[in-house]
Amino acid sequence: MKHLLDQVNLVFEPGEFAVIFGTSGSGKSTLLDALNGRRPATGGQVLYNGTDLYASFDLFRAAIGYVPQQDIVHRKIRVSRALYYTARLRLPPDTIDEEIEAHIHRVLDKVGLAEKADLPIDTPAPLSGGQLKRVSLAVELVANPNILFLDEVTSGLDAGTDKRMMRLFADLARDQKTVICVTHTLENIDVCNLVVLLHRGRLVYFGPPGEAPGYFGVVRLAEVYELLESEPAEHWAEKFLASPQHETFVAARLSPDSGVRGAATPAHAPAPPRRRWFDWSQTGILMRRYADLILADKRNLAILLLQAPLIAAVMGMVFDTSGPLIARARAEGQVAFMLVLSAIWFGCLNSAREVVKELPVYLRERSVSLGIGPYLTSKVVPLALLAAFQCVVLLAVVSAMVSLPGSFLDRTIALFLAAMGATAMGLAVSAFVDTNDKAVAIVPILLIPQVILSDAVVHLGDAGRAFAKATMVSFWSLDAMKATLSREVLDAKDPMGELLVPRSGEFSFDLGMVAVLGSVFLFVAWLGLKLKDRRG
């Protein structure tokens, strides 16, 4: 086994701003995640006011702020609305809107974004890199955490912006928030109270930044990287253990008289607040935010709304259901197949990127209080409304252009369930991947079999039919759509005596099977999100 961190002893006090830096691969982010509970250490303890963090993590969820390297904010909505939804999710439920609005104004003023409050984050003029980082910071500050962890949030910023950000972190510490930041840039490190220097998983310095160059015998602190590589990590760790800085900032703070350990870890930590199995309030807030995001991206919304009428118009121009019975039966069967296939493609494409595109936001909110059930429900309901619109428009336009006797309502129900089964399939894909590109790459792998195994393109053998029945939304959806055709068409046979529109089951049974498959895919999506708890 490899020790990513070994024998690291630190004490941070309220109101201190500490910076973690070190050589590449020294364990900086690992230490940060061990301190905030995202990746608990396999040995040792992290005590918050004498209470074991890992044993009582739920007690500290709301008190810990964390800004990862990725932006934890949706870019399409206004800055103030992004903070509003976070406040609604993370502040006490009895907080009224007036209090939230006043709090948002104070936070934006503190991070210097008060004038950007009513502007969308990336349109019409995108925020700069530094402003975007400040929005992510504001999203955490709106929950009013006691301790704030920052993982390389100044990476990629110019020197001036880096300096302003570091001063902002120092100002936050002066408000009695403990701020711990991982950084690679050392130009503005003098504004912090303490620096933590790691080398190959060992603590080699912990103390004021102004004393570090003299401690290592270098002129500029940046020169310490090359110096550290000249000796084994154990050499520098042992040197620090014998140093005055270790005595002052570690040993003295850990002594029984220092008050840092104050109350020993309770034998029985207070019970964490119980979570409800399903939070309707969260669901409502998330649905409002999702609707806000959909409406904010007007170009994408227009594409979604125009898909159905455009595809339907093409189908109406191509298909002709007039003529002899045999020709009419084949044409109506083809129309039914294309309607089902279109609904499935709409549903899957609508949802295949809905989770992964906001993965950093989801993981951050999930680590605090977000429930998987409310999150999935907040996706399913708006996507269901979109699917219903697309299916109704698709069927209405095709029916207006092509003679297709039968129940419009039954066909709408069959198409809607097909679209929702595919929507659940897309959510399952989105829940298991970690990039948009992977989601896009997997979608054809799922959709093309829906064509091949629908029992419309090729005649399936026993094995193929059994597999299709067990896995394919298209198989049961198409069978349900066939049931809506006229009895004359369903009874029509070719010259060989074979039915032109063969069926496998009854209409209600077909719909039930589509619902079952959709439920299975939703469970898979839930499982994918649950697995992200361990990785995230």
Give an overview in words:
- The chain is built from 21 helices and eight strands.
- With 536 residues, it is α/β, with parallel strands linked by helices.
- The chain folds into two domains: 17-72 and 146-257, Rossmann fold, CATH 3.40.50.300; 280-535, no CATH class.
- The strands form two sheets. Strands 4-5-6-1-7-8 form a six-stranded mixed sheet, with helices on both faces. A two-stranded antiparallel ribbon has the order 2-3.
- The model is unreliable at 261-274 (pLDDT under 50).
Count of individual domains = 2
Question: What strand line-up does the widest sheet have?
Answer: 4-5-6-1-7-8
Number of strands: 8
Q: What share of the residues lie within helices?
A: 55-70%
Give the H and E element order: EHEEHEHHHEHEEEHHHHHHHHHHHHHHH
Uncertain residue segments: 261-274
Between the first and last Cα atoms, what is the distance in angstroms?
22 Å
Radius of gyration: 30 Å
What's the number of helices? Answer: 21
Gross morphology: elongated
Query: Which structural class should the secondary elements be placed in?
Result: alpha/beta
Mean of residue pLDDT values: 87
Task: Please give the largest β-sheet.
Answer: 6 strands, mixed
The share of residues in extended strands comes to 5-15%
Summarize the structure.
This protein has 536 residues and is an alpha/beta fold. The chain has helices spanning 28-36, 57-60, 79-90, 97-110, 129-141, 159-174, 212-216, 224-228, 233-241, 244-254, 280-296, 298-318, 325-351, 359-368, 372-401, 408-432, 436-452, 462-471, 473-483, 487-491, 507-535; strands at 17-22, 47-48, 51-52, 64-67, 147-151, 178-182, 194-199, 202-207. α13 (325-351) runs antiparallel to α15, α16 runs parallel beside α21 and α19 (473-483) packs antiparallel against α21.
